[in-house]
Write a structure and sequence with these properties.
CATH topology of the largest domain: Rossmann fold
Strand content: 5-15%
CATH superfamily of the largest domain: HUPs
Radius of gyration: 21 Å
Number of strands: 5
Shape: globular
Bound molecules: tryptophan
CATH class of the largest domain: Alpha Beta
Distance between the termini: 44 Å
Low-confidence stretches: none
CATH architecture of the largest domain: 3-Layer(aba) Sandwich
Structural class: mainly alpha
Amino acid sequence: MVENQIQANPERYRVLTGDRPTGPLHLGHLFGTLQNRVRLQDMGVDLFVIIADYQVLTDRDVADRLTQTVEGLVLDYLAVGIDPERATVFTHSAVPALNQLMLPFLSLVTVSELGRNPTVKDEIAHSRQDAVSGLMFTYPVHQAADVLFCKGNLVPVGRDQLPHIEITRSIARRFNERYGPVFPEPDALLSAAPVLLGTDGTKMSKSRHNAISISATADDTARLLRSARTDADRHITYDPVARPEVSSLVLLAALCLGVTPEQVASSVGTGGAAALKRTATAAVNEFLAPMRARRADYAADLSHVRKILQVGNERAKALADATLAEVRTAMGMTY
Ligand code: TRP
């Protein structure tokens, strides 16, 4: 098991993962991936977190208020415990050599392979743009550059990202076969994270306004949870299939309290949806309080946040330059 290997030899792992800067991170991110990143960092692996500011252009024409969104992401990372002394936080746009890797990588994949990628297909189907841009079609190749520029060998992701990891592995393998060994073939690390629904009973997502942000106030959190969809049965149970909305609130409270969903359900008992919402609100706000306090401290001095990005970008740049030099040598392009 890869988990045991990480425990035994954390120094063998370089983890790369990241986020598109589309807005504040929420509880779905926290339980889905952020906690796992912090755990890996604390185990001693070398953690890289990319803020994918070019990838964000795949689903909108202009990324508005990008500076603010990027700085907000850094604040969210700091709030949850990503430690810039140990981890490297950086952005696509500040690392030219990473982006240049996309050109040789594009030559290693076929158009039909890209067209078959189920995650991209799905995103195209749900895109708010009327035509598919070249960047949308090829972003999994860009994502391969995100992972391979630093020779990342472990990529903690959700299930939807598996097709991208497959492309990354193919690119690494084909490059090595054609030009000689340069890249590792990275493994996905699937998080066992439970799926949290948003307050309207659909997938928690910032664009659906159904998500509880890490940075939300306690009052906003209470308001959002009060409006959450439930059902009419006053006896609260944990039954994700038959009662998805109620069960998601039960799960949310359980995750925040560190108990099982069944314990939450039986403690609310026949109190009905209102009692469940009160329990969930108190649990979420208490759980997030120290993170929110830490976030507010960092937010008071944004020069610190900018410094973290500068240092991360410099570190990423140095690695990307070294990898690109290796790539050019392997390809016979050193003039
Ligand atoms: N595509 C990822 C997402 O939307 C973000 C991302 C960009 C990423 N580059 C990556 C994830 C590299 C893992 C590895 O969530």
